[in-house]
Amino acid sequence: MGQTTEEKFNALKNQTGQVDGNKVAEVFDEAKPVTPDQLTGSWVGGSFDTGHPAHKKLGDVKWAGKDFRSAEDVDPMVVYGENGERVWAENYGRARLREIKFRGVVSTAMVYDNLPIIDSFRHVKDGVVIGAMDSKLLPKKAGTYYFYLSKL
């Protein structure tokens, strides 16, 4: 019997060094859709190093995660401040949640208010989602950036 989606996710998350982006995409595609209500709360962000430029950038800005207060009120980019506190990164603006079809599946996605970025989410297990960032800010050849969120 093969590995579950959660087992595949954990293996990729715990892998040291660069991760195969195609394997991360497979896990994303296998994961179940999420509803906006499942995302309510504060989440800690994690990144898969697939070679995508967003991985390094998020490390440089000390990415902490995302805060979802409601479907209409999201802090899409939360970073760690000087004292380790979670701080909204104002330059990224706010966002809202919508159900959007991405990679053939309708699931909840976060649409930035002021930037051409959409983050789509799928359920890995209770308290853990995998995300896929689709952005016009990066060259098309960069591809999809994959990340994950763990609920605080």
UniProtKB/TrEMBL annotation:
Gene3D superfamilies for this protein: GXWXG domain
Domain GXWXG: 26-84
Ranges for domain DUF4334: 93-150
A Pfam family assignment: DUF4334
Alphabetized InterPro entries for the sequence: DUF4334 (IPR025568), GXWXG_dom (IPR025951)
The protein's name: GXWXG domain-containing protein
Source species: Clonostachys rhizophaga
